[in-house]
Design a protein that fits this description.
Blueprint (H helix, E strand, L loop, with lengths): L7 H4 L10 E5 L5 E3 L14 E5 L10 H11 L14 H4 L18 E3 L2 H7 L2 E6 L9 H17 L6 E6 L3 H12 L4 E8 L5 H10 L2 E5 L3 H14 L3 E2 L5 H7 L1 H9 L7 E6 L4 H15 L8 E7 L4 H7 L29 H15 L4 E6 L1 H12 L7 H15 L8 E6 L7 H8 L39 H19 L16
Parallel strand pairs: 5-13, 6-7, 6-9, 7-8, 10-11, 10-13, 11-12
Antiparallel strand pairs: 1-2, 1-3, 4-5
Bound molecules: pyridoxal-5'-phosphate and zinc ion.
Amino acid sequence: MRLEHFPETIRSIIMPSHQGELYYQCLGCNAEYSIDQLLYTCPSCNQVLLIFDKKFDELSHRDGKLWQTIFDYRKMLTIPALKGIYLYHEFIGPMIPIESIVYLGEGHTPVIEANSLLKKQIGMTFYFKNDGQNPSASFKDRGMASAFSYLQYLIHKGLASDILAVCASTGDTSASAALYAAYLKEFVKSAVLLPYKKVTPQQLSQPLGSGAHVFEIPGVFDDCMKVVEYLSVHYPVALLNSKNAWRILGQESYAYEIAQDFEYDMTDIAVIVPIGNAGNITAILSGFLKFFKTGIIRTLPKIIGVQSTHANPVYRYYQESDPSKRQFKPVVVKPSVAQAAMIGNPVSMPRVVYLVDEYNRYADSERVFFVEATEQHIMDYQLLANQNGHIACTQGGESLAGLVMALEKHYVNKNDIAILDSTAHALKFSNFQDMYFENRFSEEFNICPNPKMINTPKLIQPQDLKNFPQPGAPLTGEEFNQFVKRTAEEIAKRLQVTRTHSSEPQSTNNG
Ligand SMILES: *Cc1c(COP(=O)(O)O)cnc(C)c1O
Ligand SMILES: [Zn+2]
């Protein structure tokens, strides 16, 4: 819709005008740093950073209801820069000029309600918010849109040029970084480091297809991360891992969208999110908090973080109920089908600790919970979801397994409405589905396929036929008619359907 067609009261406020004053803040020593430089950790104490807005309180000058109206109307604008995560510009990047925004179609992913069978089976109403429907097929695009818009802002301001963007990845970060870097190829080159043979073929093909330099490194993600950290400290490179606080800002959009998707009423809502490096849950906590502080939502939804039993350092940390006794210990990961979350030493752990505390304090009760799920459950629930019309990845399966566990522990109750993060597209992880269907999991996974869930293709080749069509060598005449008839009969037999009428159908060959 054209600007001049909006109601007069909206027209003057629909375009972002809030000028934020963003700065990096260290979560260790509280030092503040200018955002005119690329910074990932505190130069004095080495802790991770978050980005805050000195003028955040000014956003409360506007009533929460008015913000809702602005966001709802803004959805009708046709300005590409504001069609993605920057619909919430004031909350995500209130100093990024519209011209610097990179928009590749990220965000505003669909929210799909479980069918009645699945709701009954799980015992409550729930939805998948499917972040696999982002341009590179994972939620990582939300953060990359923010990080690359910031890079383009630095370029436009003359503060950076010829950027070399690097990241380590469990697969999806590199797919996303390579995509956005390719779009800005005039100014940005990208290099991605992947743990050798620990990403799926689809995830490997993505950065290759986008033209990035792809390096495979022996070990697991945590090893790649150390190499990338070394590079970022000793060489002039832009780090695109979630240590980069700009990514967190962009990923907050997931929380803003849930608020908007449910008409800003977060009563009885529980958001279920898988945890790997813990950037996603950091952003979701931060996003809901910002909307709560500005009165856009009146309740903070419950947040349930899920980890696999094979990579569960965050879950373990919160197992200790006395906060003063909690101690973070990295874990050595074991192979996991939730491979994108297979991380033993999450970079964003200090952010999680800080935000969980703040979240519960603002909610005035415990609203953030952590559960773990077995590899078996992750696979079983992924397949169950997809056999009921979803396109959940293995991490989406982890969310559903986590919901079942949260119900069992009464963190969530039957009358709540759960929103499950399926963080990527099912197709990225189809190799795990194959392994399940073909019963090929190595022992470490500890997965025993449920025969009822297995689905494999069946070759139909009736024994009584001599010849079958080959590419470039079709059958003809009576031979072809027999092939069609016998193959159809064979399929009908397998499907246990009987003929509806006895007359021979017309010949399918040459009339
Ligand atoms: C990165 C990723 C995760 C883990 O998210 P974190 O922010 O690292 O906790 C989960 N699922 C998918 C598909 C991912 O790509
Ligand atoms: Zn510091």
